[in-house]
C-alpha cells in the first residue's frame, strides 16, 4: 500500500532499453481451442523486479500457461519458450546488476510434470513422477543441477527432491518456522510443513 509500491506499476517510467530487454512480445494464439495460448507476459517480470525494488516481500507472476496435451512441442517452441527465455533471463540479470539477487529468491515452478512419451496428439500429458523447478538467488547456490532423472525422464535416478523440499527452501528464505504448529477449527495441531528439508540441507 506504500507510494513506492504504487509507483512500481508505472512501467513507462522505466528506461526503454530495459523494457526492451524484457521484451515486447505479442500473445501467441495457436488458433486451436484444444491448445494453450501464451500471453504477452514479458513485462510482468519487469513489474516483479520493480515490486521487489519497492520492498514488496512476496511477488507472484502469472504466465497463464499450463497444458501441452496437443502439439506440445510447437506450443513450447513458438509460444511459451521464446517469451520465457527472454524475460526470465532479463529478470535474473536485472536483479543481479541491482544487487537484489542475493536477497531475492526467484522460483520458477509449474504444477506438474509431463509424460516422457508423446501422446497421439503430439503432446505430453500430466505426469507426477518427475518434474523440475528453477531456483535462483537468495540462499541458493547457482550454476548447478540438484538431482537427476533417468535417461527417459520417467523416474528419479539420483538425489531426488520433493515439492516439500522446495517449499522448505522458500519458507526458510521468508523466515517462516516450518516446525511451528497451528490449531485448526477443532483444536488439532497442524504443522506448517509436515516434512521437507531445504535444498542446501539435502544436497
Please work out how many helical segments DSSP would assign: 6
Which residues sit in consecutive blocks of at least 5 with pLDDT less than 50?
none
The strand count comes to 8
Distance between the termini: 39 Å
Average pLDDT metric = 94
What class do helices, strands and sheet pairing give? alpha+beta
- What pattern of helices and strands is seen along the backbone? HHHHEEEEEEHEEH
Describe the main β-sheet briefly: 2 strands, antiparallel
Proportion in helices: 25-40%
Q: Rg from C-alpha positions? A: 19 Å
Structure commentary:
The chain starts with a helix and ends with a helix. It has helices spanning 3-7, 16-22, 42-53, 72-97, 163-174, 199-202; strands at residues 105-109, 113-114, 126-127, 133-137, 148-149, 156-158, 181-183, 189-191. The model has no long low-confidence stretch (mean pLDDT 94). Helix content is 33%, strand content 12%. The protein has six helices and eight strands, in the order ααααββββββαββα. A hairpin with a 6-residue loop joins strand 5 and strand 6. The protein has 203 residues and is an alpha+beta fold. The strands form four sheets. Strands 1-4 form a two-stranded antiparallel ribbon. A two-stranded antiparallel ribbon has the order 2-3. The protein has a two-stranded antiparallel ribbon with strand order 5-6.
Which structural traits does this protein have?
two-stranded antiparallel sheet; alpha+beta; 33% helix; 203 residues
Amino acid at each position: 500500500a506504500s507510494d513506492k509500491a504504487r509507483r512500481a506499476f508505472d512501467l513507462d517510467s522505466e528506461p526503454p532499453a530495459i523494457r526492451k530487454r524484457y521484451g515486447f512480445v505479442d500473445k501467441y494464439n495457436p488458433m486451436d481451442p484444444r491448445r494453450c495460448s501464451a500471453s504477452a507476459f514479458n513485462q510482468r517480470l519487469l513489474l516483479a523486479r520493480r515490486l521487489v525494488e519497492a520492498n514488496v516481500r512476496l511477488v507472484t507472476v502469472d504466465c497463464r500457461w499450463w497444458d501441452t496435451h496437443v502439439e506440445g512441442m510447437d506450443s513450447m517452441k513458438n509460444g511459451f519458450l521464446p517469451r520465457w527465455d527472454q524475460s526470465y533471463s532479463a529478470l535474473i540479470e536485472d536483479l543481479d546488476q541491482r544487487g537484489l539477487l542475493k536477497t531475492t529468491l526467484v522460483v520458477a515452478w509449474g504444477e506438474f510434470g509431463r509424460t516422457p512419451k508423446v501422446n497421439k496428439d503430439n503432446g505430453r500429458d500430466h505426469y507426477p513422477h518427475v518434474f523440475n523447478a528453477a531456483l535462483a538467488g537468495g540462499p541458493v547456490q547457482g550454476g548447478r543441477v540438484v538431482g537427476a532423472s533417468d535417461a527417459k525422464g520417467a523416474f528419479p535416478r539420483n538425489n531426488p527432491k520433493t515439492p516439500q523440499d522446495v517449499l522448505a527452501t522458500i519458507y526458510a528464505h521468508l523466515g517462516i518456522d516450518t516446525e511451528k504448529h497451528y490449531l485448526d477449527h477443532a483444536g488439532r495441531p497442524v504443522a506448517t510443513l509436515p516434512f521437507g528439508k531445504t535444498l542446501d540441507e539435502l544436497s
